[in-house]
């Protein structure tokens, strides 16, 4: 599968909303976020990954299929020991429906890419404390 420059641009323009116990924090690819860094620091965590199981390989699926896939993925992530925060990929223009996601605390970039491949995602968003969030493509 080829990921087009337009699709990459769409991913980079997306608002990735993470619901922490204290606040909703918006992460964007290629941007730092001191508020999220402070949240991670307070929990002794250095990394996280925002991942979804919605619309594998960016092919639209029904809400029911997307929600079922998301539930399966979140169960597997919890079984692997990750703490998850509810998240969503939101198009700031409103042209497409927000995609339910989760933020896996403590997940590394490498792990995120592997999970992304497992759930047929083109990309994940990684965040390392003190650095800009990063769009990571999942294709081998």
Question: What does this 3D model show about the protein?
Answer:
The protein is α+β, with helices and mostly antiparallel strands. The chain has helices at 5-13, 34-42, 63-79, 109-118; strands at 15-19, 24-27, 47-51, 83-90, 99-105, 123-128, 134-137. It has a seven-stranded antiparallel β-sheet with strand order 2-1-4-5-3-6-7, with helices on both faces. The protein is globular and about 40 Å long.
Q: In percent terms, what proportion of residues is strand?
A: 25-35%
Straight-line distance between termini: 10 Å
Shape category:
globular
Strand order of the largest sheet: 2-1-4-5-3-6-7
* SSE succession: HEEHEHEEHEE
Q: Which structural category fits the helices and strands?
A: alpha+beta
For the largest beta-sheet, the strand count, sense and barrel status come to: 7 strands, antiparallel
Mean pLDDT: 95
What Rg is obtained from the alpha carbons, in whole angstroms?
A: 14 Å
Ranges where pLDDT stays below 50 over 5 or more residues in a row are none
How many DSSP helices? 4
Oligomer: single chain
The helical percent reads 25-40%
Total count of strands: 7
List the helices and strands and how they pair.
Elements: H1 5-13, E1 15-19, E2 24-27, H2 34-42, E3 47-51, H3 63-79, E4 83-90, E5 99-105, H4 109-118, E6 123-128, E7 134-137
Antiparallel strand pairs: 1-2, 1-4, 3-5, 3-6, 4-5, 6-7
